[in-house]
Amino acid sequence: MKGTNPFAFKFNTMALVLIPVAVGINYVGKLFASVLKLPLWLDSVGTILAAMLAGPWIGAITGLINNIIYGLTIDPGSAFYAITSVAIGLTAGILAYMGWTKNWTLAFLMGLVVALVAAIVSTPINILLWGGQTGNIWGDLVFAAIIARDLPLLLASFTGELVVDLIDKVATVLVSYIIYRSLPKRFLIAFNNENKTEKF
Amino acid sequence: MKIKVDNLGFRYTGGKERALEGITFTVNQGEFIGIMGKNKSGKSTLASALVGLIPHFFKGAMRGNVYIDGLDTQETPIAELCQKVGIVFQNPFNQISGAKLTVYEEVSFGLENIGLPRNQMIERIEEVLELFGIAHLKDRNPFSLSGGQMQRLALACIMALRPEIVVLDEPTSQLDPLGVEEVYKSIAKLKEKGLTVLLIEHKTEYLAEYSDKILLLENGKLKNYDTPERIFGTNPGIQAPVYTQVCQALNKPKENGLYPVTLKDTIPLLKG
Amino acid sequence: MKVYTLYVPGKTYIHKMNPLTKLLYLAVAIAIPFIAPDPAITMACFLIGIFILGWAKVLHRVIYLLAMSILFISTIFIIQGLYYPGNTTPYLILGKLTFYKEGLIHAMVISFRLVNIMISASVLVLTTRPSDLISSAVRRGISPRLGYVMSSVLQIIPQMATTADTIMDAQKSRGLETEGNLKTRLKAYIPLLGPLVLGSLVSAQERAMALEVRAFNATGKRTFLQNEEDYTVSKAINAIIILALILTIIWRIYS
Ligand SMILES: Nc1ncnc2c1ncn2[C@@H]1O[C@H](COP(=O)(O)OP(=O)(O)OP(=O)(O)O)[C@@H](O)[C@H]1O
Ligand SMILES: [Mg+2]
Q: Which residue from B9, B51, C15, C58 has the highest number of Cβ atoms inside 10 Å of its Cβ?
């Protein structure tokens, strides 16, 4: 993705077709995690891969459509977190453009940033909708523990969400990074809209 | 002249070698051309260049020109070219758009895109479904079809755009024997209707039976472009149809000195 | 073939309604309890939703959705009842735990809101074919390319789930350990997901080619195979829905 304007809002067919596939990868990534009984969701590998391959906008649209489709088919509540998914896609896409897919250390840092962004965006949604709870057992335990000590709601809610997101998002980004690095080179250029055919 | 390929060369972005180099040939209206060559010899790349996917979809470095019915593919968008030249690929699954719920609607995908009025759309859909023998499946989900049925659907979708040229890139290589049979019945219909067809195929018996001429590719270059009898007679490196092999072994050439390539031509020789 | 949708086919008036009207209803029915956080108003939205679902004969399907959220609702009552910052009036004492009135009321408001969201969403989701919703949106000016993306998601996910099964079987038969300690199971993740990603990118490329040669990138005006249903009544319904929204906003300002 490097070397092109990451915000050009013009997509080739390849990039558009990547979106449903990436939503499918999110779904299957989550499926495999639950089949293997991993203590992680790993439900946004597709969004992050799409962002790495085709840039922040495609990552963002993948996140958006992912949650809308979940909302329409499995779990209406997840539509609200479309905003979080969009933020994850945007963040991963921008960092990938800045070259954070070069090595393990940077990929790990990308995971941390993505987790932080996810928690920051989810917290207001949690507060607005469910009085600050995360909807996850571990997150809610942390939330309850903090709020029981009379600490501010915002802090409790954010910490609860971050606890949930931190390990999961770092793992998700690392998994995406491993897969991204293993892809044949032709896929890394296929989504790039600015490659031109020239004469030789 | 229906197709004119002039000194065509292409290297994919990121590719080390040129996938095609110095390709020049022409095809006349109504001709049936077989395309042969080993794996990676550039057959699919040539097919992509004929329908405009090169240079509009695959990027790289290109030389030379391809003219379809007089249109230069480099200057004509694929959305326009597809009404002159259609293509069917290997994998039946990946040609289903995924956006439509029934076979009938699936055919409409391309027609909606080109903005065809609704009444003409219905007329064309019914015509192609009938032609390729899948009219009885019209309310089924496209993904629920068998491989052979799906591939005929792909052909129907392309033909609904009324191209005069059809490129078939190994259309039966992923099908079971029954599917192969079904698809070849449909290909025969294209020939009957007088379309210009270019067929990429490894099964030489089919190639020999249908083709007026065969184009042989080797390492991205045009090795030979001639009638099936001469192609199979003069290129010992390639696998000839069984009929040719049998007559060669029995040393029974035709009157013109060449060995037959089809069953039809073989029978009289073996009888006599 | 398995298709992931909650849609329940039917012939009721709700089924035949313009999908965009139902979308508007959904947005307004969710927004109202936030604009006016009054239990009675939330209750009213909830009851209207129930009534519409009953009319569409899909009420029984909602029970399943609600059952799934019972666990979450209980945690809302526990946590808010115990720790809601505005808690002052003890209401219920169980051993060492004190539940407060304010927290429980707050929990009730939140839970009602949650249930209301599920009910209102169900009106759209259970009675509308996703493809109808998408094609209505495309007719109203959403990009057909985006429309394609939305509709193909619904068909591609089941395809990929099937591929996932195949890969799982193949890798297991090659000796991949998918059970055992956490490390073993973690190590199995990439060998499962990696091939799926590669395979689906290859398919994506082939599908993109197939779409291109069917004029996917045409720039002219498009036509539609299906005639648009005549949704004249829905103009009136749209007006009522928007009026309800405006009334709520006015109520909020003056109360
Ligand atoms: N998208 C691509 N990017 C880079 N290189 C490619 C791409 N597609 C094909 N190639 C390369 O171009 C060459 C010709 O490939 P092509 O697919 O045209 O051969 P083919 O004759 O169709 O082979 P097969 O019998 O396997 O279908 C090969 O070396 C191949 O690796
Ligand atoms: Mg090929």
A: B51
Domain that holds residue C43: 8-128+230-255
User: Which residues make Cβ contacts (< 8 Å) with residue B35, sequence separation at least 6?
Assistant: B43, B46, B47, B198, B199, B200, B201, B214, B215, B217
Distance B46 CA to ligand 1 centre (A): 10
pLDDT at A1: 44
Q: Is residue C222 part of a domain?
A: no
Domain membership of residue C219 (yes or no) is no
* Residue carrying structure tokens 């293997």: A36
Contacts of A145 (CB under 8 A, 6+ apart): none
Beta bridge partners of B218: B221
C244 and C120 fall within a common domain: yes
For ligand 1, residues with CB inside 6 Å are A 186; B 12, 14-15, 19, 37, 39-45, 58
Nearest chain B alpha carbon to C159: B143
- Which atom of ligand 1 sits closest to the CA of residue C205? 1
Residue B191: pLDDT over 80:
yes
CA pair distance C210, C102, nearest whole angstrom: 60
Mutation site, C129, C163, C214, C219, interface B, largest B CB count within 10 A: C214
* Total domains, chain C: 2
**Is C137 a domain residue?**
no
- Report the gap between the CA of A169 and the closest CA in chain B (Å): 30
Model pLDDT, residue C1: 41
* Nearest CA distance, C253 vs chain B (angstrom): 45
Query: Searching chain A, which residue's CA lies closest to the CA of residue B60?
Result: A197
- Domains of chain A, by residue range, sit at 13-190
Same domain, C159 and C202: yes
**pTM for the structure as a whole:** 0.91
Q: In terms of domains, do C84 and C201 share one?
A: no
Assigned domain for C195 exists: yes
Same domain, C73 and C12: yes
What per-residue confidence (pLDDT) applies to C140? 87
Please name the chains neighbouring C, where neighbouring means 3+ C-beta pairs under 8 angstroms. A, B
Quick check: A9 contacting B, CB < 8 Å? no
List the CATH code of the domain at A13-190. Answer: 1.10.1760.20
Task: Look at B118 and C223 and tell me if their CB atoms are within 8 Å.
Answer: yes
Write out the E strands in B84-195: 85-88, 165-169
B245: left (phi over 0), alpha (psi -120 to 50) or beta: alpha
Closest A-chain CA to B14? A186
- Per DSSP, what are the bridge partners of residue C92? C99
pLDDT tens digit sequence for C127-147: 988 878 888 898 888 888 989
CA proximity to A67, closest of A137, A32, A118, A113: A118
Residues C40 and C165 in one domain: no
- Per residue in A44-91, pLDDT (tens digit) is 999 999 999 999 999 999 999 999 888 877 777 788 999 999 999 999
**C235 in the same domain as C124:** yes
Same domain, residue pair C69 and C171: no
Report residues of chain A scoring pLDDT below 70.
1-9, 193-195
Residue nearest (by alpha carbon) to ligand 1 atom 29 = B40
Sign for the pseudo-dihedral over CA of B219, B225, B227, B232: negative
Give the integer Cα–Cα distance in Å for A120 and A10: 29
Rounded to the nearest angstrom, the distance between the alpha carbon of B169 and the centre of ligand 2 is: 7
**pLDDT lower than 70: segments of chain C:** 1-5, 230-232
Judgement on whether residues C150 and C113 belong to the same structural domain of the protein: no
